[in-house]
Write a structure and sequence with these properties.
Elements (H helix, E strand, L loop, with lengths): L21 H36 L4 H24 L6 H29 L4 H24 L5
Helix pairs in contact: 1-2, 1-4, 2-3, 3-4
Length: 153
């Protein structure tokens, strides 16, 4: 079986070059995932504060409050993950646009989950928010690693 090696830093990244060996993925997981989870925890705490403020203080609908919280926390999340988890040196504009696109897709899933958990299943909006964050963590990491920050271990 042929093993495809990652490109050297001077080599341009092409689609086939992003097929990784198990060893390469394992190294990235051990280095990046803890930082990604830590960044996510900080951003989640910020998200919860905004969500509670919008819902409880401003009396906004929980879906609108969720939207505001995500919009405010997204730039912080991008910056923390760029600097600490993925240590990216790629182009900022393209990377940020990919991050926003991935976050928008994630956000759509979160809104549907929130609507179903709160509106249909009767969960408290904070419990639903915590649950969706936990469920989406690994998926978000893999999307960010492979599609946003273009893993180059």
């Amino acid at each position: 079986m042929t093993r495809i090696e990652p490109p050297s830093p001077a080599q341009p990244l092409s689609a086939p070059a992003r097929v990784w060996s198990r060893d390469t993925l394992r190294v990235g997981l051990w280095r990046q995932l803890p930082a990604f989870v830590g960044n996510g925890g900080l951003c989640f705490a910020c998200n919860l504060l905004v969500l509670i403020a919008c819902s409880e203080v401003l009396h906004l609908h929980y879906l609108l409050a969720t939207t505001i919280a995500m919009a405010l926390v997204t730039p912080l999340s991008w910056w923390l993950n760029r600097r600490l988890a993925f240590r990216s040196s790629g182009g900022r504009v393209g990377e940020f646009l990919r991050f926003v696109a991935a976050t928008a897709l994630n956000f759509g899933l979160v809104l549907v989950a929130m609507w179903w958990l709160v509106g249909i299943a009767g969960w408290n909006y904070l419990a639903a928010n915590v649950f969706t964050a936990i469920v989406m963590t690994l998926t978000n990491y893999l999307v960010m690693r492979q599609a946003v920050y273009l893993a180059r271990e």
